[in-house]
Design brief:
heterotrimer; A mainly alpha; B alpha/beta; C mainly alpha; A: 3 domains; two-stranded antiparallel sheet; 7 strands; B: alpha/beta; Rossmann fold; 3 domains; 18% strand
């Protein structure tokens, strides 16, 4: 509270001017830099004195204040135990950390972390700090920053800032920013204002789907003014109506996203199992290889997770496809026509691959960074936002599916694959090199598994067990969809994903999964060849 | 000094060292290490095996204990619970080890327990667990619920003003028990039933979309909400990812985790997680010279500059030092003598305090709350002013409220019922029935 | 063709059965003797630890025999036999739990410990009756038998075969694993059932009981083996082999294929259940991980290594692999999964008939293309 109260007296505008001043302060060697005292004050502050220390920094009007507070918020402000100097930690990995002087920005080189004493910050202080920084950012000329600041003000408005906010609202603002700030002010009014202000606030909040707005209304319903409570309740009811639609849309999205993960994991299997009749239990490990490729790429290109991810798409495909060729040549070709034996042999391969990753890389999970453009969510409205990483995965799954369909339908390879599947002897007598087709098909299926791995690295753990978690689900999808039918796999994956997500809120995660499994088992009894059974002679093989 | 004398001196020194080594080789103290080195738990337990080997190596460099060297006997129970019992039997019956350090999961401990009791072995168990147990043969160097969960909840309530609680966990005994304890505790503090949401998910759960969405909805009721997470291992990465992507930041709805340590964080991109919390009794980032020395030794032992330390490793460090002290005190490795000697043994922990073995075979520990930082470490934001003694029987569960454990003579009982004044809950019930 | 008596006794006339039973009984007697009468410090003494370990191997062997019965003679590759094994184990575990009585930590005379601390007020209905040994022992057969009956009835009736059947058996055991992991199910969740005290009044922690269980397992294996041999040498057995080799033709010949399949499948499930029931008191714990698909696949590999459709091959395979596992996990734990994985690959590629196939080749059996037909010929 104290910080924000000070903001009022801050003369924000003048601060802004100072912040924008480019001229660096030039202190002579002899003159003491006032920043030093401010930082020392912050570093020495007890939790109770924290507010005052931050306030002092903001009030100082020092152009470097922003960078100090940012460093503080990010846990990067430390104190040298020997000299007492406050420093900014640039790199905090390993035993020796790189530090810089917050006053001059000069890099002070490496220092043992034993010599450093971190300036403490916790969630509560960070929350307040965010409020202070957002308030400063509201005056930014960069519309992006301004918008984000307005977004951050939701629920953070309190008494000291209401006046500057109202002043700001009198100015010309981008509609989105204005909308946000009005809501934010209304939330504050509903909580703190007089009866008149409360009633007005409710009109503003009616129809808003923002969770903070609902929270404020909920509190108003529980409040002691019956009239306000009644109108707040009415507002909530109308919001609930709208929310229902959004929730349904959300569940559908969740279902599609889970479904697309299943499709991605299963589609490679649909080729090797469905088209070639090879039960590849090492399929999961091929997915794992794809995911590890992504991790490897990010290691090779530090600082460019996005580029690494994009490069991983071809690389993951190649790695998995090559592994697939190796498996096909070394084992599967000797087990032609013995599907159950291939199951056992490939299971052995899957154990070996898993253990290989454990021994060579690490039994621990690897951390794969999500690039900036894939994190966060696409905001449809305040109640419905689609998480970007999953949106990309859905898109990716569809692209991979379309690509496979193209290959199977429009290319020579696809034609040959279909010919060999339908009648191997006949195809061979027509001059098709069946062995080559086998290799290519298996490589294709494995490569697609690698692609799935690249996508999964953005969603789940990258570790030696990654494949195992998906192998059973993948088989279920292929069998449910009908072996040998890519469309079946797509429909089955999306259906199972959606059913699972519809059941989950109602039955819980475990029971939902069990119910889906039992459903598949029963469905197979009813239609032993899946949703889209293969027709014709191939089916009898 | 004449040459002759010189040679003589050298010879006697040689003889001394030979006899010393002969004695040590004849009769080493055998330390069994029962941690999974393959299978799903290898990910966590391998580091503990290495820790033990390192500690034993260091101890031997100092000349062992009471002039006897220590010898590690490593077996691999392969994350297979029946195999844990079998390997424990192998260690005690075939290898005749003097003490076992091992286990991670509750189920593996439960599997080993009857064997250790039957063969009268010693087991040091280094992981936070659900409590509700005190065996004469087991020393619990990890946290009991009152050394982790309850202080964490107090922190959230008092420092962050949390009023609404999501208790999310993996569906097994540790989260179940912890959440039951917390539920009772919160209700005792006046939290309404409607302000507590409990959710269980299976092991390795990877699709958190709808649960995170539920948490978001639950958090929009107008009160400060926090998630108390007992989610285990692998499920955490997708959980935190989903939180980040659905826009839940640590200042909106903080998550305090009891099973996420430095090792788990090393597999997560912690950038989006900054500010989320964990409660442990040790953090690698603790600013203490003993800790820095331990880390340096560990890094050197592993030959990996990025090797991390974590809470269960500290528990083994404490447990091992306690055992060494007890052997020194008792002058023997005899199990009965150790059981008697170890109670009250106090050794320094890595956070600058002292760990003492209590009569209920649990130890005193400080409770630390740490916030996740972007470098995969925790920064300590709060800690208890003094150490907390582990409570085997929770005061917040109806069945165990009246039970205490005290393995000193004359009580020597793991489940003494203070209401009936008799050992063994069954005898207690009997006494109650008689009284009525 | 033959009278029922003949049917039951035919196995004893076979050379392979005689040898198998001879070896098994000799082994039982030798181990018992070495355990009881050799002094503790003698190199020949067999410790209680080893006795229990051998008992565990024998349980696995019985389980492998059950799998071989359906895979070798019926052509059904079940990737879910672990489920039947675990169900038998749980039935036994529930009996043992009830036997603890009020000696548990909370001293509740009826409720097992895990129910007390999860605040259950009363015993769920499906736990009733398990305090009686006879009931529990019937359930050991009935629980897996019923599951196999229902599952098999549905599957065989709609002619789900081959790979599809394998995959849905896998789904079955996976679903059961998830279900048993749930604490609400009342089977102890991940911690399973443990801390057993006695069985039929004998203390489970005494060496004598251990030896008794070991001998009982040996006898169960012998009986299971004889039953399986009796089945496969009977007319039913030959029809089932016919189903394996050409299901459609057998059906056209007028046999009710699904009934044969169902019968053999249920018997096999029950045998697996018995194996599980004997396994639990010896290892001291039953937990949902026995349902894991991985375990079920591993069983199949024991059979494949030993040689399918021989029964004794399954026994050899189970014992060898598990012995290797015991040794490897002690000596070089990292290498175990490599070795197991390599075993899967090498056996299927280079040793399609397993060790039994090698033995037969050495004996120069008259018909070396299929061990089963070789057996047929001698029968």
């Amino acid at each position: 509270m104290g910080i924000l109260r000070s903001l009022l007296s801050l003369r924000l505008a003048s601060l802004l001017v100072l912040l924008m001043a480019i001229a660096a302060p030039a202190f002579s060697q002899t003159e003491e830099d006032p920043g030093q005292a401010l930082l020392a004050n912050l570093a020495d502050a007890s939790p109770r004195q924290m507010d005052a220390a931050i306030e002092a920094i903001v009030n100082s009007g020092d152009p470097r204040a922003r960078s100090w507070l940012d460093a503080f918020g990010n846990n990067r402000l430390s104190r040298n135990k020997d000299t007492g100097q406050v420093v900014v930690v640039l790199r905090n990995v390993g035993r020796d950390w790189t530090i810089a002087d917050p006053l001059t920005g000069e890099n002070l080189g490496e220092i043992s972390r034993r010599e450093l004493d971190r300036v403490n910050i916790n969630n509560a202080i960070r929350g307040k700090l965010e409020g202070v920084l957002a308030m400063l950012d509201l005056y930014s000329t960069n519309p992006e920053i301004q918008r984000a600041a307005a977004e951050a003000m939701m629920g953070k408005v309190n008494e000291p800032v209401i006046e500057p906010l109202n002043k700001l609202l009198e100015q010309d603002l981008p509609p989105r920013v204005r909308d946000r700030l009005e809501l934010a002010v209304a939330i504050y009014q509903l909580e703190q204002g007089d009866a008149q202000a409360k009633a007005e606030a409710i009109t503003v909040l009616t129809g808003s789907l923002h969770s903070r707005a609902r929270a404020a209304l909920n509190n108003a319903v529980a409040g002691d003014d019956p009239a306000i409570a009644a109108s707040a309740k009415a507002a909530l009811v109308s919001i609930e109506q709208k929310l229902k639609m959004n929730r349904a849309a959300e569940t559908l999205y969740f279902g599609l996203s889970l479904g697309s993960v299943l499709v991605l994991a299963a589609i490679g299997l649909a080729i090797t199992f469905g088209v070639m009749g090879v039960i590849n239990m090492a399929h999961g490990e091929l997915i794992m290889l794809g995911a590890y490729t992504t991790w490897g790429m990010q290691q090779l290109l530090p600082g460019q997770p996005g580029l690494a991810l994009i490069l991983s798409i071809p690389a993951g495909f190649m790695v998995a496809a090559l592994a697939g060729i190796a498996i096909e040549r070394s084992v599967i070709q000797y087990l032609k026509g013995r599907p159950l034996e291939t199951l056992l042999a490939t299971f052995g391969i899957s154990l070996i691959l898993q253990q290989l990753v454990r021994t060579v890389i690490s039994p621990l999970n690897r951390s794969v960074t999500t690039p900036e453009w894939m994190s966060g969510s696409l905001v449809i409205n305040d109640a419905l936002s689609l998480t970007l990483n999953r949106l990309y995965v859905i898109g990716f799954a569809l692209v991979v599916f379309a690509g496979l369909m193209l290959i199977m339908r429009k290319t020579r390879l696809g034609l040959e694959v279909r010919a060999v599947t339908q009648n191997r002897a006949m195809a061979r007598s027509m001059g098709i090199k069946a062995t080559r087709v086998d290799i290519m098909t298996f490589a294709l299926g494995s490569g697609v598994a690698g692609l799935a791995g690249v996508a999964l690295s953005q969603i789940t753990n990258v570790g030696p067990n990654l494949g195992q978690n998906y192998i059973i689900d993948s088989f279920m999808v292929v069998v449910f969809g009908g072996v040998g039918n890519l469309w079946g796999t797509l429909v089955a994956g999306l259906t199972l994903g959606t059913i699972n997500q519809i059941l989950e809120p109602w039955a819980g995660a475990v029971l939902a999964k069990i119910m889906v499994l039992v459903m598949i088992i029963l469905f197979i009894q009813k239609r032993p060849k899946g949703l889209f059974p293969q027709k014709g002679r191939a089916a009898e093989g | 000094m004449s040459i002759k004398k010189h040679v003589k001196l050298g010879l006697s020194a040689l003889a001394l060292s030979v006899s010393f080594h002969a004695m040590a080789a004849e009769d080493p103290i055998k330390v069994g290490i029962l941690h999974s080195l393959s299978g799903t738990m290898a990910i966590s337990e391998t580091a503990l095996k290495d820790t033990m080997e390192m500690l034993i190596e260091k101890q031997n460099e100092q000349g062992g204990v009471n002039g006897r060297m220590l010898e590690a006997v490593v077996v691999d129970p392969a994350s297979n619970w029946p195999l844990f019992a079998e390997k424990a039997r192998e260690l005690l019956e075939k290898e005749k080890v003097d003490v076992i350090f091992g286990n991670w999961t509750s189920v593996s401990r439960k599997s080993v327990l009857p064997v250790v009791e039957e063969l009268n072995g010693l087991l040091f168990y280094p992981v936070q667990y659900e409590g509700e147990e005190s065996s004469e043969n087991v020393f619990y160097t990890g946290a009991a619920p009152n050394q982790q969960a309850i202080p964490a909840v107090n922190y959230l309530k008092n420092e962050l003003g949390v009023e609404r609680w999501v208790l999310a966990g993996t569906d097994y005994v540790y989260p179940r028990t912890t959440n039951r304890i917390l539920e009772t505790y919160l209700k005792d503090m006046g939290v309404a039933e409607a302000d507590i949401m409990i959710n269980y998910t299976p092991f390795g759960h990877s699709d958190w979309q709808s649960i995170v969405s539920d948490i978001k909805t639950f958090g929009s009721a107008g009160k400060k909400t926090a998630v108390v997470s007992t989610i285990n291992g692998d499920a955490n990465v997708p959980f935190y990812r989903e939180l980040g992507n659905q826009g839940i930041s640590s200042s909106d709805i903080p998550v305090v985790a009891f099973s996420v340590g430095e090792q788990e964080l090393s597999g997560i991109d912690t950038g989006p997680l900054v500010g989320h919390l964990a409660a442990w009794n040790y953090f690698m980032s603790v600013d203490n010279d003993a800790n820095y020395d331990f880390i340096d030794a560990w890094v050197e032992f592993k030959g990996d500059d990025k090797a991390v330390t974590n809470d269960p490793m500290e528990a083994h460090y404490i447990g091992f030092n306690m055992y060494v002290e007890a052997v020194k005190k008792a002058g023997t490795t005899d199990v009965e003598a150790i059981k008697e000697a170890i109670i009250g043994v106090a050794v320094p922990n890595l956070t600058g305090g002292i760990a003492t073995m209590m009569p209920n075979h649990h130890i005193t520990k400080p409770v630390l709350i740490g916030e996740i930082q972007d470098n995969g470490q925790f920064s300590v934001v709060w800690e208890t002013s003094s150490t907390v003694a582990g409570d085997a029987w929770s005061d917040f569960l109806p069945g165990s409220r009246d039970l205490i454990a005290d393995w000193r003579a004359p009580m020597k009982c793991g489940n003494f019922n203070v209401k009936t004044g008799s050992c063994g809950a069954s005898a207690g019930e009997q006494a109650l029935a008689d009284a009525e | 063709m033959t009278s029922s008596q003949n049917w039951l006794f035919r196995p004893f006339q076979e050379r392979s059965t005689q040898i198998f039973l001879g070896v098994l009984i000799t082994a039982l007697i030798v181990v018992t003797f070495l355990h009881l009468f050799m002094p503790q410090d003698s190199a020949l003494h067999v410790s209680a630890y080893t006795v229990t370990l051998l008992g565990k191997y024998l349980c696995y062997a019985l389980l492998a025999v059950a799998v071989d019965l359906v895979w070798g003679y019926l052509g059904i590759l079940s990737l879910g036999h672990g489920a039947f094994f675990a169900l038998g184990g749980y039935a036994m575990g529930m009996y043992l739990m009830r036997q603890i009585g009020d000696r548990g930590t909370y001293g509740d005379p009826i409720l097992p410990d895990f129910m007390v601390f999860l605040n259950w007020q009363e015993l769920p209905w499906y736990w009733l009756g398990f305090d009686m040994a006879w009931f529990a022992f019937i359930m050991v057969l009935l629980a897996p038998g019923l599951l196999a009956l229902v599952f098999g009835f549905l599957a065989f009736r709609s002619r789900v075969t081959g790979v599809y059947l394998s995959i849905i058996t896998q789904a079955l055991t996976f679903a059961l694993m998830l279900a048993f992991f749930r604490n609400e199910m009342g089977f102890g969740g991940n911690n399973g059932l443990t801390d057993f005290r006695d069985i039929l009044g004998f203390n489970l922690r005494s060496d004598a009981t251990r030896l008794g269980l070991f001998i009982a397992t040996g006898i169960a294996l012998a009986l299971g083996y004889i039953i399986c041999r009796a089945i496969v040498t009977s007319k039913l057995g030959r029809v089932s082999v016919a189903c394996r080799d050409a299901e459609a033709r057998t059906r056209f010949l007028g046999y009710r294929v699904e009934r044969v399949q169902l019968f053999v499948f249920v018997i096999s499930a029950m045998l697996a259940g018995v194996a599980g029931a004997l396994y639990v008191p010896q290892v001291g714990i039953i937990n949902p991980s026995e349902f894991s698909p991985l375990f079920s696949i591993e069983i199949v590999v024991w059979v494949a290594l030993g040689g399918r459709a021989t029964l004794y091959g399954a026994v050899i395979g189970a014992i060898l692999v598990n012995y290797a596992k015991t040794v490897f996990t002690g000596v070089m734990p990292d290498a175990w999964l490599f070795a197991l994985g390599a075993l899967f690959v090498l056996v299927t590629v280079f040793l399609p008939k397993g060790i039994a196939g090698l033995l037969q080749k050495r004996k120069k059996a008259e018909n070396d293309d299929d061990p089963a037909t070789a057996q047929e010929a001698t029968a």
